[in-house]
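Hey all, sorry for the wall of text incoming. These are the two entities for the joint prediction.
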Amino acid sequence: MTPQQWLRVKALLQAALAQPAGARATFVEEACAGDTELRGEVEDLLRFEEENQAGISLPVTKWHDAVPESEPPAEADLERAGPYRIVRRLGEGGMGVVYLAERDDGDYRQQVAVKVMKSGPHAAEFARRFRRERQVLAELQHPNIARLIDSGATSAGQLYYVMEYVDGLPVTTHARDHKLTVRQRLQIFRHVCSAVTHAHRKLIIHGDIKPGNILVTPDGTPKLLDFGLARVFREGPAADQLPASTVSMLTPDYASPEQVRGERLTTSTDIYSLGVLLYELLCGQSPYSAKEQSPLEIYHAVCELEPVRPSAAMRKSTRGNAAIVTAQQLKGDLDDIVLMTLRKETERRYGSVEELERDIERHLSGFPVRASRGSSLYSFRKFVSRHRWGVAVTLAGTLLSIAAAGAIWWQGWQARQRFNDLRQLAHAVVFDLHDAIQDLPGSTAARRLLVERALVYLRTLDASGGKNRDLQMEIALAYDKIGQVQGSPGRANTGDLSGALESFGRARRILQSLLRAAPNDLKIQDALASADEHQADIHEQRGEAPLWRRLRQEATALRWKIANEHPEMPAYRATALWNEAYTLSGENRPAESVIAYEQALTANLEVAAREPDNAALRRTTARIHRNLASGYQQTGRSNEALDHHRQALRIDKERVAAAPRDMRTKLELSWDYTEIGWLLHERHRNREADESFSAALVIQQEMADADPQNSLARLEIGKLKVTAAPTCEDAGDRPRAIQYLQDATRLFEQSVTLDPSNDDARYHLGWAWSDLGELYIRAAGNAHSGWKKASPCFARAAEALGHLKLEGRLEGDLNAKPLIAHVSQRLAECRGHQD
Amino acid sequence: MSHNMVVGATFRRLLDDLHKGNRAALDEMMPEVYAELRRLAEGYMQRERPQHTLQPTALVNEAYLRLVGQESVDWSNRAQVLGVAARMMRRVLLDHASSHNASKRPGLLAQVQLGEAQATALPKPVDIVDLDIALNELQALDPQLSALVELRFFGGLTIDEASEVLGASPATVEREWAAARLWLRRRLSKDQDA
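and here's what came out:
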């Protein structure tokens, strides 16, 4: 169907839908007026409208093999469950329906609660697990635990279990209705604690402690229900595995962070739940205000948000227990106790329910509680390694432990604030967000902003971080990354070479001092070698040969050291070889560099063969081909050069196809096209060369358009146009050649203005002006008019080149002297033509 | 829920630009929105548990809040940003589905509920890859319609919000939505019959 046809169909469809359902058929028939095709389409679509009325089951989108949905429990009244006669329904929970039942055994009448589980695909599995647990659970005998009596399956195959019937109210309701004082609530809570302690001694975890599971009888005795059953009724992988999360069946409000994360349940989980319970008991509200049950909000609330202190919650509250429980009573000890149970990290909570119980006793007796002094007990290192946000966490940990020792509340609060800021920054800004956007179009402005902010924070951290090695490492890596954003060639950057130098310098200083303390640490060596290489790149762009050389040597030495210390990792050797080859080519020793690159290529292919999907390796392979091509070119073996460029092109095309939004890959592909274009041009295959250049130009223009602040893109287009202009001319298109060179001068001008230390841009500016001058001369057939046009071009070339730093450049680097000489000569000739 | 200050500031500035009529700001936002969504979604999906429901619209709103912060934003801007986020969300889910299909872990089930819009539109479960293919086809046929579906399914936009983003009246959007539903149902039922 064409879009036009569809529009007709759509219009008619919409009109038909506006009619009452019964009138639609006639309407369509009349409106189509004989157009059977149109009518067929509309009628076919309308067919699906009727289906709208059918019952809609929960629409889902399946990722994998779907398990058929469990049906809701049969609505038909259940009459019996084994030997138990159902009296009435008591309620419904996440797991199933609860009934009041009686055992009818002649003279033996016992009231019980029968919980019938939802049937579904896991019923058999549940039954199996239940049978395993039952024996243990039946041994739980405690005045505050509702006994598990029996279990079985209904005639319909639904699993049920039978418990002691507790006639009572949920504990929070009970406390509210009876207007219990703080003291009274705490006493009830202690009973609950003793029940949980009893179970923990038998290694039974409850897993689902919440007010609904704690009923208080009229005489004030709390009883815990459903002990240990969370373990049974979790859905998921085989029973042999550790108990997994049961959040899907449990009420999310009471889930602990580890449950939300799907980790194993421990006794600490119960402690957390007791904390939530205590919070609710005291404050009448939940510690978190996650309103909706979206799993994401639950995760955020439970795993990331700090709960409001009970006393603070009471101050703000107008409902709940406000009349009976006051903020004043909660302030201090009770605040601390509750918060300690609600810690996100299990090792920072009370070690056992008994400890919790004892702290409450202490409070009730007027003795100081342990809670407020607890924080300093946790291991510092453990805290650091637990989180991935190394930097911020370490510093924040220090702050927090200071706060704990001082035990001044507001200081602790501030530390938490700062912790959040730093954590968010380090994680999101320097690493996560940067990685996510660095190779996407349009991101340079945002990245510049990130860099600025990140630098400020890093300087602060650097100053206050002290001697912690992990922290120092993180900071160094961050500086290295920022340096790359600021100025490395080959990546989208903001053109700030001096800033990059500073960042790399900081990174290296830190890494060097770390290395002195741990000379054989692989990570540090590798990081320092990388930082050296990155900084060397900057020196190359600035034409600072001695500095470049020194850094390359340092990097090479490190790389070889790593390779030799780890002979089992061929990748390190490949990197070392490549590093050396690159240095040789920079020193303008192309013959040696070719040999070295061939070795590097072999080593790299060896490693790549084992990891065919490793994108970084494929990139390196392409680069080595390019390097080889360049080396062969310089040694006059242009056939090999062309061949290697073609190899690189092939690989890069694949890479672009695999990652179409990666700008860096596209840039490299454009380089391949450019180089091939030039080689073809040298062989006078100008038409093909032009095609190749055009392909490169398309890519680079696309990149520049997508990211106007990307100075590298600008520079590359300029270079490409300078390179391609002779081909245009030789192919007979002189006007385009002139256009290219004019564009190029404009682009280089912009780059030089942005960063005056960028000799690369300056050199090319001179080159472009010079070429343009030559072109005008040729275009006029050496006539006077040509020289007149050329004169200002050469003048501007001379001006640009005049600011170049000439001494101390690398051998293999741009050699401006011949060009300067040439331009001077031309200027003289121009003056001659004026006379 | 104070979140990343730096990102928030940039984002707010971009929103201001957008408000002043600079639609290019939307494009600038996209990488950040995408990154945030991806981070959220991946972080969440690592914790796969059987039969948990992931609500992409919740993710989108979450991402929006995180990026912008608590300050209330002009409603029309919000709709536009959510539009961007919806597009990104679709990518995120698709990326995740593709990588999941590739790794083929049997026995795990994650249900993605695309919001009420889907609930009323599609009567049966549908694979997200199929949905993506169908939407691509629809885009070739009727780009406005495809955009609408994307906004509603992945962004959770209401009719009013969608009309703001698309620049059409709510009445029009209602009619378009009705047509879109039917087209989708027919198109997707073919997948399921196959």
